[in-house]
């Protein structure tokens, strides 16, 4: 991710060190390098500690027999990820550790849910694949996460004490148990309903094919719901279960959407007209009154428009990466973004996500009660300007999409703000 900025940063560090050494005698030069090592060693130590903790958390999750143990693992993960971010300022490191550990937790919860049904007298031979969308689908989980999962299952015999139970009945029960257990370990329910407890987010291969066909027809009665669901499915990624069954599902979904110009155009209309915290003379748009007076929702008015615009362009071009930074890289490689715009968008992503992590850490410490809101005028001047520039880059991206698809309309009301 962010290959160009990383290379430039390493080059800059090397140049600064060499320029400094060029003006020093041997002893002062050695002292200077010792100071450099002293600055780097704590960072290396923090990364090594986080890596060791991640291995431990994954191993513990894999072997856990009780939900209470999995909940404690999730809580410990939040502490480890928070410490790592405060030490390094790295959003990719936090996302990597949170995504990897939570996948281990989720996979174990699914195993425990199937076991519970088995001992209750219900078992299905049909293969099952678990997929994630949202932040989990993009490998961009932060300190706190909600459920964004779906079931894809095959066909097979159901062995159950309930006579006449069909595979669909079994997976409905499994979805309910799975969602309840995830909630018990500290992964809250999705406010948008993207959970296999809901019929719309579980099904056989044939059911999903039929469901996608219905969404892509964009029928007048429910086209808004279809667009929102299609947008969510653009991040679908295999998590665990039957790999043969799940292989190619995400690629197939994105391909079908890409081949439907009407769907792409509707998505472009939605993402390019989401409101930003950017007003006259580049002033931040903030709440005028209420509990969040002087603040704005950084998730809804900065982070979501960026993620969703990048996602739209990536799917339109045929990029299979699901993470936002990787999509930006691939869009640059494909010539759809200039080097400058790609660099600015990558920086915008890390600036905005960094502020989200800082706010989540403040929520964890009970300093604030809502991690989505931020007061830009409480930030130090340089940080405030970086955030202003980040939002300006998203505005440029939205303008590019509007120009490419020849549209301009407002579509905020279609988007569920939880994802």
Describe the structure.
The protein has about 425 residues and is of the alpha+beta class. It contains 15 helices and eight strands. It is about 60% helix and about 5% strand. The protein has a four-stranded mixed β-sheet with strand order 5-3-2-6. A two-stranded antiparallel sheet has the order 1-4. α7 (about 205-215) packs across α8, α11 runs antiparallel to α15 and α12 (about 300-315) crosses α15. The two termini are about 20 Å apart.
Give a concise summary.
Residues 262-405 form the DUF294 domain. The protein is α+β, with helices and mostly antiparallel strands.
- What is the strand arrangement across the widest sheet? 5-3-2-6
Per the CATH scheme, the topology name of the domain at 260-419 is Four Helix Bundle (Hemerythrin (Met), subunit A)
The geometry reads as globular
Order of SSEs: HHHHEEHEEHEHHEHHHEHHHEH
Structural class: alpha+beta
Tally of individual helices: 15
Radius of gyration: 23 Å
Helix content: 55-70%
Estimate what percentage of residues fall within beta strands: 5-15%
- Oligomerization state: single chain
Number of strands: 8
Mean pLDDT, as a whole number?
Answer: 91
Pfam family, one: DUF294
Domain Protein-PII uridylyltransferase N-terminal: 80-217
Domain DUF294: 262-405
Keywords: Transferase
């Amino acid at each position: 991710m962010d290959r160009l900025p990383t290379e430039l940063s390493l080059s800059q560090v090397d140049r600064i060190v060499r320029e400094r050494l060029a003006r020093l005698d041997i002893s002062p030069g050695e002292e200077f390098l010792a100071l450099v090592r002293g600055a780097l060693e704590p960072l290396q130590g923090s990364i090594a500690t986080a890596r060791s903790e991640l291995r431990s958390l994954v191993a513990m999750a894999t072997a856990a027999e009780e939900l209470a143990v999995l909940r404690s693992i999730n809580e410990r993960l939040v502490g480890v990820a928070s410490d790592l971010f405060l030490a390094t300022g790295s959003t990719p490191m936090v996302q990597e550790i949170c995504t990897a550990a939570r996948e281990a937790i989720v996979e174990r919860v699914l195993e425990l849910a199937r076991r519970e049904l088995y001992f209750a007298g219900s078992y299905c031979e049909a293969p099952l694949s678990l997929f994630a969308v949202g932040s989990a689908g993009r490998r961009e989980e932060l300190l706190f996460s909600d459920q964004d999962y779906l079931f894809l299952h095959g066909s097979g015999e159901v062995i159950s004490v309930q006579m006449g139970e069909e595979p669909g009945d079994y997976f409905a029960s499994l979805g309910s148990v799975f969602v309840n257990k995830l909630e018990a370990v500290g992964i809250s329910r999705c406010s948008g309903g993207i959970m296999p407890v809901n019929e719309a987010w579980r099904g056989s291969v044939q059911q999903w094919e039929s469901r996608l066909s219905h969404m892509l027809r964009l029928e007048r009665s429910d086209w808004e719901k279809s667009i929102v669901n299609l947008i969510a499915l653009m991040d679908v990624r295999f998590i665990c279960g039957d790999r043969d069954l799940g292989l190619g599902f995400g690629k197939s979904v994105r391909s079908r959407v890409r081949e439907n110009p009407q769907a792409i155009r509707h998505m472009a209309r939605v993402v390019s007209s989401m409101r930003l915290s950017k007003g006259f003379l580049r002033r931040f748009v903030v709440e005028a009154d209420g509990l969040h007076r002087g603040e704005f929702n950084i998730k809804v008015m900065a982070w979501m428009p960026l993620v969703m615009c990048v996602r739209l362009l990536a799917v339109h071009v045929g990029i299979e990466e699901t993470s936002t930074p990787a999509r930006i890289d691939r869009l640059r490689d494909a010539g759809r973004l200039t080097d400058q715009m790609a660099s600015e968008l990558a920086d915008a992503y890390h600036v905005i996500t960094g502020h989200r992590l800082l706010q989540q850490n403040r929520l964890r410490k009970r300093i604030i009660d809502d991690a989505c809101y931020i007061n830009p005028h409480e930030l130090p001047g340089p940080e405030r300007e970086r955030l202003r520039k980040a939002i300006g880059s998203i505005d440029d991206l939205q303008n590019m999409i509007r120009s490419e698809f020849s549209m301009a309309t407002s579509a905020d009301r279609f988007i569920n703000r939880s994802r």
